[in-house]
Amino acid sequence: MSSSSKKNHFRFWLTVYLLILVIQATSFLCSFYFLAENIRNGNRWIAFGSIVLLNLFSLVAIHFLNRKMSVGTLGSSMQALRTSRFTGAFLNVALASLLSTALVYLIDDVFYPTLATTPYGPLAASLVFLGGILEFIFTYYLFQGQGITRL
Amino acid sequence: MKEANAKLNRFIPIFLTLFAILSVLPMIYYPDPTLYGWINSAAVKDYYWISEAGIFMVFALVVWAKNRAEPPLRYGLMFLWVMLFSIVLVFVHECSLTYGHNEVYTLPLSAVALYEAKTFYDVFFCFAVLFLWPYAKKEPRYKNALPIVVVLFALVSVVYAFIRGRDASYSYVYYTSFFKTNEDLGKVLFAGCFALGVLAYDAKRWLRYALIFLDIGLLVATGLLGLSITFWCLTGASVVIAFTLLSAQKDHLLSKPLKWGSLLYFFLVLLLVLLTSIPSSLASTLRSYLGEEFIAVFSSRLKVWKAYLDSISSWRIFVGDGLMGYYRSSLLATGQAVFTPLENGILEVYNSGGLVYLLFYFLAIVIGLAKLKKEEAHHPIFYAVIVAFTGAFLFFTTLTDERLFFSSNFLSFVVAYLFMGYSHHKTIEDEE
Q1: pLDDT digit string (tens) for B238-279?
Q2: CA neighbor of B97 nearest in space, from B291, B325, B252
Q3: Which positions in chain A touch B313 (Cβ < 8 Å)?
Q4: pLDDT tens-digit map of B27-43
Q5: Are B39 and B48 in contact (CB under 8 A)?
C-alpha cells in the first residue's frame, strides 16, 4: 500500500471513529437529560428509549472501532491523537454538548412542545453534568487505546 | 531584546498590583461614598469595566507577544475552542422571553453584548493566569508587591472596622469597614490571610514568626467581626497547613517551634469547635459570631439558587441561559424583570456557558494544580499553603460571585495570582 493510500485509509477510519464517538457522547448526554425529564414529568419515555438504544449501538461500534484503531498502521497513526487525549476528551464533550442542545431543542421545542408541569432544572443540570464528567473520563481512557499501542 | 523582555517581566507584578487596586476601588463605600457612587453609577460602571478589561488584555497581549510564550498545543486548542464557543453562545442565548399572557420581555442589546464580552474576557483572563503571568516567576524581584499591598489593605480594613463599629440594623454581628457589605470585608480579609501565609513562607527568622502571628491575628479578627464564612474557610485551610507542617519530612521551613505551634493550633481549633457545639451561654455567644452570618447567607442564597434552577429547562440545560438567566426566575414568578445575582461562582460559570464552561472551569483548575505541583515539587509546605488556601477559596466561591481563574474581581484576582503567578524564591540550599 502506498503512503498516500495509507493516509487516506487512516483518515477514513479516523473520521468514522470520531463520528461514532461524537454520536455516542451526544446520545449519552441526551439520555441523562431525558432521564431527568422522565423522573420529574414522565413525558419523554420514547425519546429516552430511542436515545439509550442509539447509545448502546454506538458503544458497541466504538468498542470494535477502538480495537481496530489500536493495531497495525492505524494504531501507530493514532499515537499523535493519543498524546492529546486530555484535550480530545474535552473537545468531544464540548461538541456533544452543542449537538445535544440542537437535538433537545428539536424534540422539546419543535416536535413535541408539551409543557413540563414540574420543574426539572436542578435534576437535569446535575445529571447532565455528571454525564459530562463520565463521558470525559470514558473518552480520556478510550483515547489511550488498547494492546501494544496503549499509552 | 532579552534585557527589554526581562524588564517587562519584572514589571508584571507591579502592573498586577495596580490592576488589583483598580479592581478593589468599586468596593470602597466608607468613609465617603462619592467614589463608590460614581464608579457604580449606570453611566460609568460599564465604561469602568471596559477600561479595566481593556488595559488588562492589552498588557497581557504585549507580554504574550514579547515572550513568545506559546502554551502547549493541546491547551492552546482547548482555549481556542472555548473562545469560539463563547462566540457561538452570543447567537444561542436568548434575548427575549415570553411570559404570563403572551407578554414579551426583551433584553437591551448593549447589555447582552456586554455580558457576552465579559464571558469572553473571563476565558482570556483564565488563559493569562495559567500561561502568561507564570513568566513573572523567572524574575521574582517585585513578586511581593501584590501580597504586601493586599496585606496592608486587609490590616487597615480590620482597624477601620473596629473604629466604625457594628452595623446595628442587622440581627447578627455585622461589620462593614470601608465596604457596603460585610461580604466585601470578608473577601479582603481572605485575600490578606492568603497573602500573609505566602509571605510568611518566604520570610526568614523572626519576620516569619511575626507574619504567622499576624496571619493568625487576622483569622481571629474575621471571627470577632462576625465573618463566619471567611472564618471557617480560613480555619479549614490553616488546619491543612498545620497538618502538612506536622507530617512533612523535607522542607527548609521545618522547625521545632513551628511543629509545636501546629500541634497547639490543632488543640485550639478542637477546643473552639467543642465550645461552639456544647450548649452553654458561651456557645450562644460564639454562635452569634461564628455561625449566624453563615446561616443567614446560606438560607437566602438557597432560595435564589432554587428559583434559578427551577426556571431553567430544555436546551438551556446544556449551554446555560446567559444574561436572561438573571431575569428569568423573577419574570416567570412575578412578571417583573428584576436582576437577581446568582451569588454562586459555580452557578455563574454554568449560567455563562452551561456544561462546556463548567467542565472547562474544573479542567482549568486541574491544569493549574498540575503546573503548580510540577514547579513546587521540592517545596511541599509552600505547595500545601497554596493548595489549602485555594481549596478554601473554592468553597468560599459557592456562596459568593467569585470564581477561580474566571473572574478578575479583587479576591479572585489575588487568589489567581498567588496560585499561579507567585513562586517560592529559590534559595541556594534549594538549588543544591
Answers
A1: 999 999 888 877 766 677 888 899 999 999 999 999 999 999
A2: B325
A3: 108, 116, 119-121, 124
A4: 999 999 999 999 999 88
A5: yes
**d(Cα B339, Cα B335) in Å, to the nearest integer?**
12
Size of interface A-B (CB pairs under 8 A): 94
Q: Against a cut of 0.80, is the pTM above it?
A: yes
Determine the Cα–Cα distance for residues B200 and B382; give it in Å rounded to an integer: 10
Min distance B62 CA to chain A CA atoms (Å): 27
B149-198 per-position pLDDT tens digit: 999 999 999 999 999 999 989 888 999 999 999 999 999 999 999 999 99
Is B364 an interface residue toward A (CB < 8 Å)? no
Distance from CA of B372 to the nearest CA of A (A): 18
Q: What are phi and psi of B37, to 5 degrees?
A: -60, -40
CA-CA distances (angstroms) from residue B355 to A51, B70, B85, B218, B318? 19, 27, 12, 38, 5
Are residues A90 and B317, on separate chains, in Cβ contact within 8 Å?
no
Q: CA B390 → CA B13, B151, B213, B424, distances in Å?
A: 20, 17, 21, 16
CB contacts of A107 in chain B (<8 Å) are none
For residue A58 the three cell numbers come to 454506538
Q: How many CB atoms lie within 10 A of CB B82?
A: 25
State the burial class of residue B41 (Cβ atoms within 10 Å of its Cβ: 0-12, 13-18, 19+). Answer: exposed
Q: Report CB contact under 8 Å: A94, B81.
A: yes
Taking alpha carbons only, the member of B20, B52, B341, B381 closest to residue B183 is B341
Report the percent of chain B where pLDDT is more than 90.
Answer: 69
Closest CA–CA distance from residue A30 to any residue of chain B (Å): 9
Query: From B312, which residue of chain A is nearest by alpha-carbon distance?
Result: A121
Nearest CA in chain B to A120: B310
Query: Contacts of residue A91 in chain B, CB cutoff 8 Å?
Result: 77-78, 81
The DSSP string of B85-136 is HHHHHHHHS-SEEEETTTEEEE--HHHHHHHHHHHHHHHHHHHIIIIIGGGG
CB B402 within 8 A of CB B411: yes
| pLDDT at position B348 | 94
Nearest by CB to residue A87, choosing from B78, B85, B354, is: B78
Contact across the interface for A108 and B312, Cβ inside 8 Å: no
Q: Which three cell numbers stand for residue A16?
A: 468514522
ipTM: 0.92
pLDDT at residue B139 tops 60? no
Chain B within 8 Å of A124 (Cβ-Cβ)? yes
Domain locations in chain A as residue ranges? 3-149
Residue bearing the bigger pLDDT, B371 or A136: A136
A48 and chain B: CB distance < 8 Å anywhere? no
Q: Is the pLDDT of residue B430 over 50?
A: no
The three cell numbers of residue A78 are: 493514532
Burial readout A86-111 (b: 16 or more C-beta within 10 A, e: otherwise)? bbbbbbbbbbbbbbbbebbbebbeee
In Å, how far is B309's CA from the nearest CA of chain A? 5
Task: Calculate how close chain B gets to A110, using CA atoms only, in Å.
Answer: 11
